[in-house]
Amino acid sequence: MGNEPRKLGDVMTSGALADLTREAERRRLTTAEIRGKLPAAEAEHLVSASTNSAGELVLVMDTPSWAARMRYCVDGLANGPVRVKVAPRGG
């Protein structure tokens, strides 16, 4: 009755899981767009790109040295502020 199995497609397109799926796709598209605007070396070290609730573009780099280098390349990537972060180790 209430605990009957649901199709995976139904689960993926409704509720909180659907919200997560849409957010993951949005981040994937934003990351691809930003990679296309970066020099090849910087693009290779970009882990992800997204916008936060404050409207900032948030770039996550794989190491602190690439994050520092990226801070010099952010002009022209976004209309607003850009924040550069480092991905946590193992994450």
SSE diagram, text form:
Layout: H1 8-12, H2 15-37, H3 40-44, E1 46-51, E2 57-61, H4 64-70, E3 82-86
Parallel strand pairs: 2-3
Antiparallel strand pairs: 1-2
Would you kindly provide a written description of the structure presented here, covering whatever features stand out?
This protein has helices spanning 8-12, 15-37, 40-44, 64-70; strands at residues 46-51, 57-61, 82-86. With 91 residues, the protein is α+β, with helices and mostly antiparallel strands.
Main beta-sheet annotation: 3 strands, mixed
Helix content: 40-55%
Assembly of the depicted chains:
single chain
Shape: elongated
Query: Topology as H/E string?
Result: HHHEEHE
What value does the average pLDDT take? 89
Strand content range = 15-25%
Distance between the termini: 40 Å
Question: Any low-confidence stretches, pLDDT <50, length ≥5?
Answer: none
Radius of gyration, CA atoms, in whole angstroms: 17 Å
Structural domain count: 1
SS class: alpha+beta
Reading side by side through the largest sheet, how are the strands ordered?
1-2-3
* Total number of beta strands: 3
Helix count from the secondary structure assignment:
4
